[in-house]
Amino acid sequence: QPICNLSLSVTPLAPILSSFGPVMRFFQCLRRYYDTNAVIHLGNAGKYASTTISVMMIFYWRYTVVYYADDYNKVLMSKIIYIITQVVATVYANFWDLTQDWALLKLDSSNFLLRDELCYKHKWIYYFGMCNNTFLRFSWIFYFVSDSFLVRFLVAFGEVLRRWQWDIFRIENEHITNCRAGRAIKELELPTIFDPSLASPTSTEKIKKSSLSSKVNRKQTWRDFEPKLDKDEADYVQEDDDDYEEDDVNDNLDENDNDCEEKGNLDSVIKDNLDYEKKQEEGEKDNENDNIDP
């Protein structure tokens, strides 16, 4: 049967379009795990994998209802499979929202089932958000009560409100985490102009290329996307390092030349002083000889 003649609930385009977002996020999480080796990204990938499976199963259930209405066992089995996958995906996603994205449900927290640091003054806001998020996550149950347009609209509108609420608590948790761990600071390399006249002659300070980013453990910065350098970029960085080493050598040579020049100037000054003192002594002797009576 042509796709244009099928019901919107059973057309093959429905699961493809509905699962496009979770599938993309699934591969993004796998890439993040490849870049950072942080196991938490595998857990996040599992959440999107369960969501994708549940989307496929709801399509399968509706498909059997339309085309296998006479086969009661097949329809019942598809419905059971859909309910199981949907419950697993919902529990998984809701648990991830509360414990990872919002960093709540801390058993050892001074605030019961919350976390130690809170931005909002009233705690009931967090408890309301937790209950509301759980309720809206399970709003798909209303599809078994009625499949009318009003029910579908209310469920979809509730999902919009849930995502809006999720953003508020997610940004709050990210702000607290960044302030506590200092992950919001990104070192930027700026051009530096060195004036030798402002430094002391014995100063041995040198301008070195910062290597802070290479000393940080990748697992401690698992939220930062750090792509690997390709061959051209690696060669460029190596050439940059060589330039810094060459500059250090030139600075050392310049310092030695300055020291030699200053030492030569000092020797000439000392010599001039000695000659002046010698001339003064000779002048005094001549005066004494002139004062002697013949």
Automatic annotation (TrEMBL):
Q: Which InterPro entries match?
A: EXS_C (IPR004342)
Q: Name one GO cellular component term.
A: Golgi apparatus
What ranges does the record list as Basic and acidic residues composition bias? 261-288
| Biased composition, class Acidic residues, residue ranges | 232-260
Which residue stretches belong to region Disordered?
Answer: 230-294
What is the protein's major site of localization?
Answer: membrane
- Write out the GO MF terms: inositol hexakisphosphate binding
**Pfam families registered for this protein in UniProt:** EXS
Q: Does the keyword Lyase apply?
A: no
- Give the stretches traversing the membrane: 48-68, 80-96
State the UniProt keywords alphabetically: Membrane, Transmembrane, Transmembrane helix
Protein location: Membrane
Q: Topology versus the membrane, per the UniProt entry? A: Multi-pass membrane protein
What GO biological process term is on the record, naming one? Answer: phosphate ion transport
Ranges where the EXS domain occurs: 5-202
The name on file for this protein is: 4114_t:CDS:1
